[in-house]
Amino acid sequence: MVGLSLYHGGYLSEVMRPAYLAVDRGQHEAADSLGYSFRQKIIRTVGPQAVHIGLPGYGNAIIYLIHNVALVMYIGAADVMATAHLVMERDYNQYQFQTYLVLAVLYSIMCLVAWMIIRGFEMRSPMATPKAASVKTVPMPSL
Fold first, then answer.
1. What's the pLDDT at 134?
2. In 3D, which of 117, 8, 110 has the Cα closest to residue 66?
3. CA-CA distance, 15 to 35, in Å (whole number)?
4. Class of the 2-130 domain?
5. Cα(88)–Cα(82) distance, rounded to whole angstroms?
6. Residue 40: pLDDT over 90
7. Residue of 104, 105, 102, 121 whose CA lies nearest to 62
8. I want to staple 19 with a disulfide (CB 3.0 to 4.6 A). Which of 50, 75, 77, 94 is the partner?
9. Rounded to whole angstroms, how far apart are CA atoms 22 and 88?
10. 77 phi and psi angles, rounded to 5 deg
11. Would you call 120 exposed, middle or buried from its count of C-beta atoms within 10 A (0-12, 13-18, 19+)?
């Protein structure tokens, strides 16, 4: 569990670092001119903008985390995959296909729910792109 936590902590830091660097330098200077400490600058000015920029990558990292949690079975921790192996052993490996099919559906549902939550946050973000319906097109003049 520690290894998985360190791996994903490093991965998430590499998602948020470029988002922090993508915030306009003028925002950093504006926070400095207001006399904000580094903590205030992160919480009030730069942090919220960086979160909106890094949200898609952060969502992908959450889905990777869901996928990688199945790996903890190999170190003896009880998770969904370990429970499935216990069920198959109880039934003498009779229902392997059905058990793995149920697991695939379960992981797909977990990833879909995570994707829908992240997508909802992305749509509420001020950095979201405008919808195609609101963009007006100008007809080309005929010759």
1. 54
2. 110
3. 28
4. mainly alpha
5. 10
6. yes
7. 121
8. 50
9. 49
10. -80, 140
11. exposed
What is the Cα–Cα distance from 126 to 132, expressed in whole angstroms? 16
Which residue matches tokens 């370990």?
82
In single-letter form, the type of residue at position 3 comes to G
* Polymer length of the chain: 143
Question: Is pLDDT larger for residue 67 or for residue 33?
Answer: 33
Estimate to the nearest angstrom the gap between the alpha carbon of 100 and the chain centroid.
Answer: 25
Angle between helices 80-90 and 96-124 (to 10 degrees): 160
pLDDT of amino acid 17: 92
Query: Over the range 2-20, which residues count as b (16 or more CB within 10 Å of their CB) and which as e?
Result: eeeeeebeebbeebbeebb
- For residue 119 the two structure tokens come to 């997508």
CB 28 within 8 A of CB 47: no
How far is residue 6's CA from residue 82's CA, in Å, rounded to a whole number?
A: 22
C-alpha to C-alpha distance for 58 and 14, rounded to whole angstroms: 10
Distance CA 138, CA 126 (A): 26
